[in-house]
Amino acid sequence: MTSTDGMAGNSDDAVAAAPSSPTTDGPEHAAHRATGNAGVPDAAATATGTCARCATTTRQLTSTTRVPGMSAAASALWVRPRGKGLCPPCAWMYRSADTRRTPHLVTRWPDSVTAIDPTDLFHVLSSPVSYSTAVLLPDDDGHDVLPYARWGHVSAPGVAVAWNGRDAEMFAAVGRLRRRGFSGSFLGDPTPPLAVFDTLPMREWERTYADWAWVERWRLGLPQWKIALRATTHVTTRVPGTSSREL
Ligand SMILES: [Zn+2]
Fold first, then answer.
1. Could you tell me which residues come within 8 angstroms of residue 215 by beta carbon, excluding any fewer than 6 positions away?
2. What global pTM score does this model have?
3. Do 190 and 209 fall within a single domain?
4. How far is the CA of 74 from the centre of ligand 1 (A)?
5. Of 45, 76, 95, which residue constitutes the final position of a domain?
6. Which domain holds residue 234?
């Protein structure tokens, strides 16, 4: 798992992170409480013990052999990787399919977990993500996201990125470039491709170059860049002389 430290100006300093949420304060616990499933224990979870993932002591420990979908990479992040069982929220997390399919927003104070559409996701990522919010962005393959969730971060399978003001500005710039007609494949180029640039009115040229320069540092394989491209695929562009289309 990788993470950025969340400090402005350090977005390109991806570093190895500690286990995603080793306490009961993590987004997965808040999501579990919000679903109301905290009071619906696994019928076979009758053992008392310590959760291998988050170290919570519980009387409803579910054997790890009964929890499908856990990967070796995910369990390597647990507080006790060789532990024998998981607490109810952690066991639920690996069984929950919704967050693997659709972007979600998790909050605390109060606890909530909400599926969000592409428009809401764009709105959320256009601002810094607060420390009472976690954003979940699944991939097309349905891999786990919730085990990587952290407050103040945008999480995708295997990664959590602190989303600060500079990330939000970069994201907004990617959205503006999408609207001007630059698809995801174009956005990886070092300069704006003329095939699209020439379609723009002159009044947009300076801003386009400025946005292009602004996103330059994020193109270097950083998770923020991949998240921005994925979360802007719905942005509608209007090419002069044509109708609006989805990219
Ligand atoms: Zn746990």
1. 170, 173, 174, 177, 187, 225, 228
2. 0.83
3. yes
4. 13
5. 95
6. 165-246
